[in-house]
Specification:
The protein contains seven helices and seven strands, in the order ββαβαβαβααααββ. It is α/β, with parallel strands linked by helices. It is globular and about 55 Å long. The N and C termini lie far apart (36 Å). 25% of the residues are buried.
Length: 202
């Protein structure tokens, strides 16, 4: 059956990263906002046509003003606003600019799911959809748990829901169970009754 997949907002710092394609985001739980710098006159036809195809799941925001961090402030503002409306959402900032990392840390401390990736293809949930081998899947699950900091799932049920939504609800039941079993076998996850604790690799 169809399970609820949390909304994933992808906020692209187009001044810093110009993706060749957004086709990996062509899925209903992705919403895309492309932030265009004040000095950027044009964006690629490929990106424009893909954004058009996404309809109301994608939009552009053109930054007014040339302040050094104008674009960063806009992204921070939109995440703040969206996180209030949709506290369950996951925010992906696409930028090579490490200046976003303190913002990501701050959001995580507030229990808002956020991360920065250097390209849309590097988004964990995108990689997850493309990963086929169990070892690839395990390393993605471990990365995802590490990114959650203190906000890791505390029960077996939430952990399996978390893994399931990472793989966009595409994993068959037995694959999900075997991934959970493997995490326990490797000592990464320990289960007491229904509670889970973690020993994640550094």
């Amino acid at each position: 059956g169809w399970r609820h997949v949390r909304p994933n907002y992808v906020l692209i710092d187009y001044e810093n990263v110009q993706p060749d394609t957004l086709t990996v985001l062509d899925n209903e739980h992705f919403k895309v906002i492309v932030f265009i710098g004040a000095n950027q006159a044009k964006i690629s036809f490929e990106i424009a046509s893909e954004i058009q195809r996404m309809g109301d799941r994608a939009e552009y925001i053109k930054i007014a003003g040339n302040g050094k961090n104008a674009l960063e402030f806009h992204i921070a503002f939109y995440i703040g606003q969206l996180a209030t409306q949709e506290p369950q959402a996951y925010f992906h900032i696409i930028s090579k600019d490490t200046g976003f990392d303190p913002l990501v840390q701050h959001l995580k401390a507030r229990k808002i799911l956020a991360c920065r990736a250097r390209d849309v293809a590097d988004i964990t949930i995108v990689k997850a959809a493309a990963s086929k081998s169990p070892s690839e899947q395990l390393s993605l699950i471990i990365t995802n748990l590490q990114q959650r900091g203190a906000g890791k799932p505390r029960t077996v049920k939430t952990l399996s829901n978390t893994i399931n939504s990472l793989f966009q609800g595409q994993l068959p039941e037995q694959e999900l169970s075997s991934l959970l079993a493997e995490l326990q076998k490797q000592g990464i996850v320990t289960v007491h009754d229904t509670r889970v604790s973690y020993a994640l690799p550094a």
